[in-house]
């Protein structure tokens, strides 16, 4: 990985989920930086392709197709798959099997994985807890479980095959924050883009070969997340949700479960536990 | 769970994987204790059924069938699925989807899950490390990953639905130890049976509602595993591999990876990392 | 079922096929009545959700998801699945497997099933026959066969598990009648809605535990259908197709098979019998 | 069908499920009669093939293969599929989809279907009821439901495509009766063979084009089954279970559900209805 | 086949892929000729149906449905399936399995197959080669491979079952040519329509029973394709791309692989061979 | 490929279908030569593994597993899949999809493919024809079609990706010949083994990069097969069926189709063509 350049990766970069919201933001931004992009999704790419980008329809569940798309790539930005809570059977194909295909591709190529994990992989930690990057995984649904599975698979592929991974535990990545929780968890498109760039370009992830990054902007209300790998990759958020505070701070869910846990509303979906936790 | 009796559970107990090696041992032993057993497997049960036991062919991938088998049960002993390393595609159906079905059943019934997890869920810890039950998961293959996934799913079902789980991180459960590593990891059939009984009968798992148990007999060479939930459930191993030491202690694998990590030979399967770890 | 209230069911009601034509009509009408609705479909719900309604995407072929959606429900309005004639392979998944999931859910919940059956379950009776609710099933295609299968499954679940079922043998449920046959078979949206309400709210279905209802409005040309369970549930149609008679009575199909049998055009699809029937 | 000969059908006969118990009995017996047999099963045929017989491995779920096997055949003896109670998901493939393939084949060939239905298609009638062939279908499980589905599909294919069907509602077809219920329901191998021969050779099934036959030997304890199509096809049983009465009449199940209903033990499997029926 | 009439086939014609671009052109044109058309596709037909045409939704992977649609047809125009290069897994279902279903239908009906093959079945011949209809198959991707497979299956069905086939190796069939290569390979809609008509109506395909036709209009730049079966079926192209030459002749791909081989751009997709061919 | 050694390949060799008859012969023979073998099959390997051999259970339909098994291999001996005529649906998975996985593996590794093709890929040539290696493919069933598909895929992978292939058109490879046709087509185990060795070890396949070999021993009655690539790879058969001639020459099939065509009995299976060919 010593050959990673300062602003443009030496090898092509594969982006899965290219036709999704974050995929389109990344395609535009990375294309403007002059990156050589291989894009894929199971639905057509809706925008103009940047120069140097190629798009190929493929299903994440089609292993040989994903392995083939990754050939020659030095980094896989794995943003494909289901991105909100859904029944188990809807999640398993794209997010469990699809993830395996992405990691097999990374192993074959000796590529680094930049994996769009989620705060929902640790959503059942309470908001009063302060988490470092070695906190226990505590998924808050089938979606979160698929992300936690992905981080563990990343560990396996590191131990056994030397594959590097950056796990982006993305908070809430939208054009702007829209409720009180996002005053803490919001990740601006700009910060997200720079995070992906640094995760890709960082010459090393240190001796462990993996890095967890808490994916939130410089929000003063984000008090739950502390130590992570941002210095290793050279990233710091620049944007902040603070200016939205006046408009949004009263906009809470009213659900005591959702307000108690870091995962917010996802933790309250189908919540059926009667006795108080702990 | 306050109604769990001393030696015989008040409600029937579902045992998956009943036709496998450990399933057959459990069926015989628990049947002799007078337990009411519901047995299932995807292949016929090869032995005489104990009194009070019912067997039903079912595939772990058939969700409604598993949910139905569990009706009225107070405990699920989930021993079904693939039990050694295999390609991902072989593991995902019985061990990931099948596990989900078992947990859905536990949730529906308010049943306790006793899950046959494995040391391979943490196999990439080195043998020089001493692990407590809150150590990081570190699976050593697709099989181990499915076990780690199961423990996380257990956490999710505890947080969201109040389902209790005992995770048995079984070492090496065979009639007798057969190599040097098993001098540490061996779990005798008797200790395994008593462990399952205590996991089922323990009136409470404490405030966390989950317990991890290191599944090894009282082997003096087992120096890697320390604190766990055995006191909570009231179990202590009685057997020991020590008497096999003279015969087996030279019987090591000769593979430096296998000898370095707790997971033994599984960690060395397909191992392709070139640089030294850490 | 003694706790069924007069106008609002005491327990939530699950409606499958909520995004379809009849599903949307029911959602609006029952929502206005203040019912607590759980809605599901495999495509998003296109309208504003009424207060007290929750929508969850799910595939009828995903058994555990359907079972979970039904938890706590006292009635299942099963309007999902394929609703016109299609090749067998298109019908079997949503209408045979999906039906099984709906009935498993009803059994698990002790819920009553209100099943959108169809005149096509008995479509091969001739129009000159007068049918009571114990007439033989005589499906007129793969779709009708799936509905007849559903009624038999309802009988099985009643016998074996005590599940109550109302089988709505719906004639032609559209905003208004559009051909001569519908002068007999038309069921207005209003009558359909009231029928579903009574099927849900009726305190008992009598000793048999099942009721068949001929689903037609008060059309004077409907001379084929006679005795059914409408008194048991307390429903009578209020609307009539009669005012459309002048405009539509000449609008027949011109196909002798279609005109001979109660199922109309469905009976003539792919009809290949050469000799005259009977 | 006017060309059906007295003892040997003019066209080849397709037998599905040839490698099963009844299939092997039929193969031997019909082969000895000089019939031209096409045999199929998903497992190899274990016996010596009679002269004039051809065997082809095929899965009932493979439609084009089944359609092809039936080419040129004048009769399909459909004995394939699951033959005892199993979870729904195990039954649907071979017994629902497989049945459709068999009926499509019959339609394409203008062949007569001789369908191994079962008493379990009507198993929830009580033993005190006397049934004629037009009694309501009352399946006693998923297996029985698949048989009832088959009879309804036979009706559909008769109405729409002119396909003739003989529905053999087989009681208990074993080498000899083994419990008290079989004193009523036993069908000897000889009677079964002669029944299949007559069902195949009968020149006509009368104007309805379908015939139901109660498949029991001349057992004096069979008091539940009365009128059927045996005269139409020219069959009468010759054997009797009566000589086993002394040995077996005390051998009842002891289960009140099983003893109440015609379907016997199948009706009691998973029986969960609390209140008394009727 | 001696009964094929001059302008209207005596038996109905099945057209698969009816809702696609070429399918719609054919439906309109053949409908205007008074042909009796059976149309099918997996998506609804978007246009007004011509008189005498019937449309049925069906999936090419549903064998019995395709076999049934073809009943009574004398010709199958197989234009369904994937029509451009895609990953193998996307192609195999519609184009390999679907093709088998189409050929099984042709065999059952004794129908002639008119198969929309493609120049991509021979795309890896160089443009300097002059090909006759007995040239070696040389597919240029998974799509082309499925077309070559189809031609071989046609040969098999001819040898074994006497099925006649016309293989249309279509060049580029679009409203008008849009690049330099199409100055050679363009097939006008009119020429394509007349080709399909002649392929259907030709009384005989000669002793071999199969005919390959190079599907290009009368373009003076088409110098690669020579002898074929056009005289046998009585077709000659009438249109020409020549008038587009001035506008398009500089519009080449710039890719040396694409320019070298007859298959054009398809040959260059994923091209990874390093050394020079031959 | 310049590094292929004289007797032992420099890189490991992957053998699919290792547990089959030919696979076991090859494993033993190549193991004795000191080759480094990777073996795979979907059923366990029944024999003692030679030194230097590794066996891994895997399904040919599991693409990533096959790709992974091939890593580091310089040659793939593709002997897996269905090896006799079966219905299409039985063949497509292992032989079409499985083949694709084998070729993808070869492409990824830059490995040479040694493909167990078959005389059934050209079985519909008459025995009076003399074939060179550039003869037209003429498969004689679904099995033969899968072999012809494989040869075409080999051509595609050569053209597009530079993959070398040796196509072994195996005649009849059994311990000894057992009928008259095998006096021509028999390939002894010894000749087969030497053929595979030469196909693997040959330093080059010449400029075309592919070679077809007629897989028959030095039988004087083999008069149909002439020119092929044996000189290029340096193979000549040493054994002969001639000594069996006296015992077998009268042992013909008696079927005129089977006797006419090179494919023998396979060409006569389901043969339904009425008019005489040609």
Automatic annotation (TrEMBL), chains A, B, C, D, E, F:
<protein>
    <submittedName>
        <fullName>Uronate dehydrogenase</fullName>
    </submittedName>
</protein>
<keyword id="KW-0560">Oxidoreductase</keyword>
<dbReference type="Pfam" id="PF01370">
    <property type="entry name" value="Epimerase"/>
</dbReference>
<keyword id="KW-0520">NAD</keyword>
<dbReference type="GO" id="GO:0016491">
    <property type="term" value="F:oxidoreductase activity"/>
</dbReference>
<comment type="similarity">
    <text>Belongs to the NAD(P)-dependent epimerase/dehydratase family.</text>
</comment>
<dbReference type="InterPro" id="IPR001509">
    <property type="entry name" value="Epimerase_deHydtase"/>
</dbReference>
<dbReference type="InterPro" id="IPR036291">
    <property type="entry name" value="NAD(P)-bd_dom_sf"/>
</dbReference>
<feature type="domain" description="NAD-dependent epimerase/dehydratase">
    <location>
        <begin position="13"/>
        <end position="176"/>
    </location>
</feature>
């Amino acid at each position: 990985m010593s050959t990673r350049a300062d602003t443009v990766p030496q090898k092509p970069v594969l982006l899965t989920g290219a036709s999704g919201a974050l995929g389109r933001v990344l395609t535009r931004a990375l294309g403007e930086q002059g990156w050589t992009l291989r894009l894929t999704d199971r639905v057509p790419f809706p925008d103009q392709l940047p120069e140097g980008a190629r798009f190929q329809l493929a299903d994440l569940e089609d292993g040989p197709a994903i392995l083939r798309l990754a050939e020659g790539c030095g980094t896989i930005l794995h943003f494909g798959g289901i991105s909100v809570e859904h029944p188990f059977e809807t999640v398993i194909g794209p997010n469990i099997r699809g993830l395996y295909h992405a990691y097999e591709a990374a192993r074959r190529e000796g590529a680094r994985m930049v994996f769009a994990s989620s705060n929902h992989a640790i959503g059942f930690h309470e908001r009063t807890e302060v988490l470092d990057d070695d906190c226990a995984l505590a998924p808050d649904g089938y979606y979160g479980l698929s992300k936690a599975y992905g981080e563990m698979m990343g560990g396996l592929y590191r131990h056994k095959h030397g594959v590097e991974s950056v796990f982006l535990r993305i908070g809430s990545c939208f054009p702007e924050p829209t409720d009180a929780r996002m005053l803490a968890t919001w990740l601006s498109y700009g910060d997200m883009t720079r995070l992906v760039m640094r995760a890709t370009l960082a010459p090393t992830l240190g001796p462990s070969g993996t890095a967890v990054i808490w994916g939130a902007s410089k929000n003063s209300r984000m008090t739950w997340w502390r130590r992570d790998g941002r210095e290793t990759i050279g990233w710091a958020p620049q944007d902040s949700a603070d200016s939205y505070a006046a408009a949004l701070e009263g906009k809470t869910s009213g659900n005591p479960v959702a307000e108690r846990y870091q995962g917010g509303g996802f933790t309250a979906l189908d919540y059926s536990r009667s006795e108080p936790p702990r």
